[in-house]
Every structure is written in C-alpha cells, then in structure tokens.
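Issue: copy button drops trailing tokens. Both records pasted manually instead:
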Amino acid sequence: AAEEAMKESEERYRTAIEYSNDGVTLVEGDKHIYVNKKFVEIFGYAIPNELIGQPNSVTVHPDDYEKVSNLNRKRQQGELVPSRYEFKGIRKDGTNVYIEVSATKVNYKGVPVTLAYLRDITERKLAEKLLKETEDKYRSIFENAVEGIFQTTPEGRYLQVNPALAKMYGYESPDELLMTVTDIGFQV
C-alpha cells in the first residue's frame, strides 16, 4: 500500500510539473539537468534532450547572461538573492524572449541546485513598450502644441496645463500656473 501511495504521489507531481503552464528547470552549477515541456516550447526547441546538459547561455541572452549567472551561483551557494526577477532570453532560432523567473535553491540528489519556474512575458513587454511610446508621443504633442491645452477638475482647478497655455496667461512655466491659479472661474 505504501509503495502504491508513493507511485501515485510521484505520478501526481510528475504530471503537475510536465503539464505546467510555466517552464520548469533544475540547474546544477550552470547546466540544465531537467526541463519540462513548456520550458522547451518557450525557447523553441523540440525535445528536452536538446537542453539537458546545456549551459544557461543557450537560453539566456548575452545582455543578461552575467546577471542570471551571478544570481544562480549566489543562490546555489546559499546567499540571499531575489527569488523573482526578469531577464531577456534567446530562442533556438535567435529571436528574443522576455522571461519572468521565480527561483529557489533546493537539494537534488544531495547537491544544491536551482529550481526555477519561467514565464514568457514577451507580449506583456511589447505592450508596455507600445504604451510608453504612445505616452511619449502624447506628451510631446501636449508639450509642443502652440495652442493652450489643459485638463481640469469639475470644481475648476487645473490638473495639467501645457507650456503654451502658461505663456498665454503670462506665467513662466506650467508649474507656476498650476500653483497660482486655484480657481479658474474666479481667477482667469
């Protein structure tokens, strides 16, 4: 009965890890000693054996390799390092992939290794970049417009004013106008 319970427990954990929505790896030193199917998929490989025994440099972009290696080494040596971080990875075909990692030190077969869960956040990073570009474009239009542009509260207090509006009212800067005019209906 104990042997059957052990087999059932092992099967449950194996299924949970193999079919996880996150990539999972065990790293000993700098080499992958285990990767699940999702890890293989994230980095564009066909089978786990293409990555087993390979160094982190196969999946970590050169821009972030030193950071990831230092965190991994320090973690395995028992030093305190962040358990969550992001890095730029590289797929088999050379394209970039952005990864969010949750990692911890564990002992595997009596040896300290890193157990890491990886999530592909490439779409999120691209959306953040697009949002920043859009915000920068809006900010540029707002700041450089020749027309006065402003945003107010319903009570009549400026929230934002552009340089053109400040100049029209004779103020040196938008900040000076915002600090001086507290009631648009009364003061302007």
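Record 2 (pasted manually too):
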Amino acid sequence: FQKIIGEAGIESRPIIGGNLMRQPFLRKHYRPAEFPNADLLHDNGFYIGNNQFVTDERMDVLDDLMRKFFARQTITK
C-alpha cells in the first residue's frame, strides 16, 4: 500500500517507536511473544503525511486509493 500511495505522490514514513517490548529494559517485565499485535504494527505500521497543504482533493485521492486497495484484500481469522 505504501508503494501505491507513494506513486500517487502521498508521502509515508514508518512508525518511529516500534515495539518497545523488544527493548532490553522491558524484556525483563514482558514477553514480546504475548503481544503479537505490537509486532504486527512494528513490522507494518506507517504514518501518512499530514500538513497544511492537504486539501479536500488530496484527501479524496487517498480515500479512493484506500477503498480500491482494501476492497481487494480478504480478511481471514
């Protein structure tokens, strides 16, 4: 998805903090394996650019890209 929005001129960045439970100071208190969603975000999370130049038209482009991309995805449990 990041590649698709990047090709449309929409900037994105990885989530900066990541899964802090992977850090040594927290490993003695938590087991990272017990928090699989934290690793999911660590590996796949990202921010989408947001600034004073974001217009309704640009939001419509993002909305359209998201709808098309996620409509193709299948959800499994």
